[in-house]
Fold these 2 entries.
Entry 1:
Amino acid sequence: MATDLGELLVPYMPTIRVPRTGDRVFKSECAFSYDSPESEGGLYVCLNTFLGFGREHVERHYRKTGQSVYMHLKRTVKEKATGAAGGTVPRRRNGKVFLDLELSRDFNGEEYECEDEAKLVIFPDHYEIPLPNIEELPALVTIACDAVLNAASAYKKQEPVSWEEELQVSRHARSLRQQDNGVRIPPSGWKCSKCEMRENLWLNLTDGSVLCGKWFFDGSGGNGHALENYRETNFPLAVKLDTITPDGADIYSFEEEEAVLDPQISDHLSHFGIDMLKMNKTENRHTDNLVQRRVSEWEVIQEAGQKLKAVYGSGYTGIKNLGNSAYISTTMQVLFSVPEFQRAYVGSLQRIFDYSPLDPSQDFGTQMAKLGHGLLSGLYAKPPMKSELIEQVMKEEYKKQQAGISPRMFKSLVSRDHPEFSSNRQQDAQEFLLHLINLIERNSAGSENPSDVFRYLVEERVQCCQTRKVRYTQRVDYLVQLPAPIEAASNREELIAYDAKRREAEETMGAPPEPVRARIPFTACLQALTEPQNVQDFWSSALQAKSAGVKTCRFATFPEYLIVPIKKFTFGVDWVPKKLDVAIDVPDFLDLNRLRATGLQSGEEELPDLTPPIVSPEDTRDNSMSNSTDSPEIDESSVMQLAEMGFPLEACRKAVYYTGNMGAEMAFNWLIAHMEEPDFAEPLAVPSFLEPDPISEPVASALDNQPPEESISILTSMGFPRQHTIRALRTTNNNLERALDWIFTHPESEEEPEEVSDLANAQHNDHGPPITNGNSDSTLSPDTDASGPRVRDGPGRYELFAFISHMGESTMSGHYVCHIKKEGRWVIYNDQKVSLSERPPKDLGYIYFYHRLSSC
């Protein structure tokens, strides 16, 4: 038999590889679906590419690549048998458990066991060889199979090196046995049970003992009694008492000797009478004065205490939380409730899969289609069988939580090379939404761009207060960031009284007053959005000097879908992000037609098309330059304030300059938004106001300043002509943001410079067929020039269909849920839990989504 198997595998030996350092082995998830070894058909791992495929998709990979040898992995999870006395029977010694995999569902490790099966499968005949089969298989095949079975998670190898260690789930978390000894932990007043210490106290999650630490990662002192207790009892997990909040807690594993995560920490704490929703970080003395507000926010937004009815099926699939990943799941749930996204990715599923690259795990379109199909197919949101419900009710462990899908591959791809999204820390859902729209723009060349439904034009009107002359410009935007003016709160008197009581309590060390949430009318938010704003350091081209100026913004076009984030997050005096505690009466229906831009009015006179005289980059490096122009004015105090925070000095100068000397806070926001740019720390270089004549430039100059093809693709995907895009990028030194502004202020002329046109055509031909957009011209605004961006203009009447809510003190912590209106009813998506909403908290949302109402 050994000879037969050896001969059978000889033709395929050149295609079988042993995983090397750096190879990622996908043995827990299919590249095209959310099938896993626990799925009915198991998972097939290619022994050449190490990609995983479900039964439905392995044939596609075989036909595309010709790879014939796969390892088939199957895991069966079953309940342990019970003995005569009712206890569980110990697992059989010959039970096969050899896959280093996480369970795709939450099982109690004391009541369930896994049995794994692996075999080689040779396509196209589906010839199966059971494993292990060391004696009969060639040595190379045996080594390759062993390496695949023992390979670490494909995602662990991609985790970036960070200044902050990324925590892993403890292997004791799911199987932790807790003693039923009647121990109840009070909310404060803790002390070590052996030495009376009141600091650095740790609660053992097995026996409930409260003991002091010694050498843990926070560096605080102690007598080491928590460690002594572990050595005596082998109880592995402990939680630091003064770190317990609704967001989580600091957990340490004595056995693993590191800080860890415990997905079931809420249940483990409740065993000892601790409710995480009612806890907040303390110093074992006074509870934080925001605890009441935090409890209210978490309970109201998650509709805690309501008997919510679980829903299943197409469009009601939950998404597993990978650890602070709710900002991704809520964003994707809302996007795939938009028909254009469903059509672009799920409607074209087979075409996208058939034309996917050899490594579909790294293809954006494939992973978007996979996620959309997982959410909309209903395959991963099936209701439990009647027999399962009866069994769960009998055991008093009924859970409304479905299996859902785990977006590990999607998160790994979209967060690649991003310092924040690639971490395990909580992030801002608004920033992720913009990041995702940017990825969609980059990957939609030559196909339908679903983000077109969010794009619209803003008209900015700037007026010189002295000459009364005006300038109208347009810019592209995707979000309408709505201010939250606290001064317009309807309960302003209550807020003033609360603030006085709070200050008095701080001075007298008394009990803090009950927090008061500011209630702001939505009309006040709209008014704050549209009212004129002073333009600091405004340079009037009519006066050729600085003057006072005001700016107003209006909608030049209305998008098909309106995204309205509330400006809830700001920075405190110590530059720590904080969240405004506000409630806004957001309406279900919205009419913005009165905010439509009108353009230049009769009687208005335009400002001359001149830019302020500033020093060119060449002049700043040339000490022998003429002093006929002044250096740009920069607020050095703001520069130094930012530099003291650790930012590069030149980056601080650029931030202050490009925000018009409007203060350190505005410059700080600019720094955060531009940190990833390659020239972030380069010296300030501003273009001369005398624009060179492109016609007189030699062709060699055009070739030297050839824009990156990626930048060209981004702008052309927005509907701009290729020649005009190249000229804009060259003029602005390949700066995308400035190039977009240049396009709006320099409409395409009939006669393009010859060398630009030739260069564009040459590049065009080098990169294949012309780039076109899948949207028909009928969706374009009739008022938009063909050279402008693709927008879908229409009436400004909208209806609310979804909103994302945040719980926590800042975007750096907390949790997200979303509510989506489907089939006339509101549905709450809270990770894997999908239920009908009883009281959707519309006034506490963070990002609101509206769709346009059809014309009557």
Entry 2:
Amino acid sequence: MGDMFRSEKMALCQLFIQPEAAYASIAELGEKGCVQFRDLNEEVSAFQRKYVNEVRRCDDMERRLRYVESEMKKDEVKLPVLRPEEEPIAPNPREIVDLEAQLEKTDNELREMSANGASLDANFRHMQELKYVLENTEGFFSDQEVINLDVNRKLDPEDPANLPGAAQRGQLAFVAGVIKLERFFSFERMLWRISRGNIFLRRADIDGLVADEETGRPVLKTVFVAFFQGEQLKQRIKKVCTGYHAAVYPCPSSHAERKEMIKDVNVRLEDLKLVLSQSADHRSRVLNSASKHLPRWSIMVRKMKAIYHILNFFNPDVTGKCLIGEGWVPTNDISTVQDALARASKISESSIPAFMNVIETNEMPPTYTRTNKFTNGFQNLVDSYGMASYREVNPALYACITFPFLFAVMFGDLGHGLILLLFASWLIIKEKQLSSIKEEIFNIFFGGRYIIFLMGIFSIYTGFIYNDVFSKSMNIFGSAWHMNYTRDVVEDENLKYITLRPNDTVYKTYPFGMDPIWQLADNKIIFLNTFKMKLSIIVGVIHMIFGVSMSVVNFAYYKKYASIFLEFLPQVLFLLLLFGYMVFMMFFKWVVYNDTVEGPLSPACAPSILILFINMILQGSQDTPEPCKEFMFDGQKSIQQVFVVVAIICIPWMLLGKPLYIMIKRKTNGAPPPKPQSGGGEGHGEDDEMGEIFIHQAIHTIEYVLSTVSHTASYLRLWALSLAHAQLSEVLWNMVFSMGFKYDSYIGGILIYVFFGAWALLTVGILVLIEGLSAFLHTLRLHWVEFMSKFYEGAGYAFEPFAFKTILDVSEDD
């Protein structure tokens, strides 16, 4: 599990590396992933740093890689998936030139093929549309008509038929083309308007879908022919065609010429098909060849760019013969860093080996908690609240147990817990295969598979305690109650219910959990309400006391011994003397009051814990009938008064103790009062002004006193959700599954399967998923607010080492 109790010790190290060994050294450190480098050139622009040209080269290679990858996606070429052990190391600087040349060659070849392919595709579409025009306009013309419809024909001015008057009377011109079917009707109206109805328009729809030259998507198109008179109208029609993106094609009016032209177009189409096929084959070969190397190239370029980016953090020394860098390193990994530097110097054949010095600093180091796949999920829950301060007590260590336990208190059902356990077990067993899935929602469940596994185990445990399996009880050990009534009394029709008194009918203690006879009792909900309500308060107070106690560990580590007496002691006394005492009264009531005695200690005389606690705070009293007593034992009133007085004293103790101690300490040491900070500080320490210290302590005291009451009440959610979960489970059983048992014939056997399917679906969907998510969120709140607020500061920042693995993972997510 690593050092989970606290974050690891960190050291600020200074690295001295020769320029010729710098690239190899950073590459080795990137593979190890244990140094968080600091930028020593923050004031220098990114364009003025030493390795800016190398970073630009990497950006250019990344751009080429993205283009090649996009072309592969267009052609649906699958990229091979590299296993972790197959990932290449960062390339040597000498290999970069070869890699760059290879990428440039592949990129240029693909771009040239794409440009040529686009031109060929456009020509092919135009030839196809011309063929459609020639074929579909066949019915618009007749060989027998002696009318000159050839728009391209030159007229003989000496021919009497071609005189201006005759042309006005008999000659028609036409324009033929192709337009999208969805635009044709608007196109037709526009032509009618500009010609004032002097255009005769015919159309013939093209069978099937035709590729659109603008989007490349298949669309419906139609062939049109517009007949008109006059050169001016012809120019208008062409302008309208341009506006509507209609393609105009030459079309002779003579049948023989059209036939000859169709033959020519078919020949050209066959040639284009051959060329397109050969181009596609060549493109496929190039892409398939590149796809074999693209994952490796991509990883190599990313690593190379990351190395030069980190090298820009370094500063050259005065002589320019050495690069100086700084970074945070876990003390346990210092030897690893030294070995990596020595190995890099050997690889680069540097004359002077790189070395590292640990330097002293007053800066707060980053927080680094070493985790594994089991503890990582719990650590992420804690880090979501706030990154722990350096070497602060880590709540994730205790959350590994308390989190699934508090969840199970609200989710206590053996059957539902078994479903969670089976699901988490499947995720754990198949984790190698499932780790490759990148779907966001699934990754949330997969990342918390061990949390779900423990939640399932603890839910099975609390299910045994509650004796609840899909709202039914198990009679494993035999009920501890026995019937002391005769058969005649039990079978009496006038008797609505019978009462079983523990003194007469209980002959043993049920060994584990809840006695199954409570499943049949009319006061089942009342009994379980009382039991779970008290149980939630007991668990909550113990949880909060544990949280307050953890602050002692922090105070002792940071050597703030005065805070143990000025903060921890009044806080724990206030909590114990009020709510710890209430928990004691619950246990005392359970032990002392029973059905075996008469008089003041009989169950009828048992006082209400809530009323006793309210009277204790308000110093009130209540009248009790004889022979009952107001208090549970002699001297209880005096003890309660002392507890309340001491608890009230704890409030000014918390409020004034620490500020007065700091004031006296400053006067004793003769230290001058601190100057106010010009910027936002990182929390309130002993170096602030006294006014700020008093204000901060007042806020802290008010928050603690009020939150002690509200947080205790907040733990009642354990009781509320547990009751709601059990009742909803019972409703689903009675209203859905049990309906199938009401039919005796063979139809009943069929209906059982139907109702079971509905019940199983609702159980998994509502009780396991929705109720489980609700219980998870409530458990998270209890840890973040009620538990961690007692000792956890969370004012640190995360340790983010330079690691190739992290860089590659982030790149894949993007």
